[in-house]
Amino acid sequence: MRTENLEDKKRELERLKEAAEPLIKYLCENHHPHITAIVTPTSVEVMQGIRMVSGIDEYIVD
Predict the structure, then answer these.
(1) For 9-58, what is each residue's pLDDT tens digit?
(2) Which of 28, 32, 55, 62 has the smallest count of CB within 10 Å of its CB?
(3) pLDDT tier for residue 3 given thresholds of 50, 70 and 90
């Protein structure tokens, strides 16, 4: 694992933000607020949330 100092981490977060902003702008201008985008190194998937139930954790094995 690479050791990073605080300034390196700040620069990396800024680079990530700069990379994400065009996609966020596209989503806001072309889709409704219930859209999610998943980005991988080879693709982007745009999904629509219809219903969600969260907090079901009684089956998680510690």
Answers:
(1) 999 999 999 999 999 999 999 999 989 999 999 999 999 989 989 999 99
(2) 62
(3) low
Distance CA 2, CA 61 (A): 30
23 neighbors 44 (Cβ within 8 angstroms): yes
Q: What share of the chain is helix, strand, coil (3-state, %, to 5)?
A: 40, 15, 45
Three-state SS for 14-40 is HHHHHHHHHHHHHHHHHCCCCEEEEEC
Break the chain into its structural domains and give their ranges: 6-48
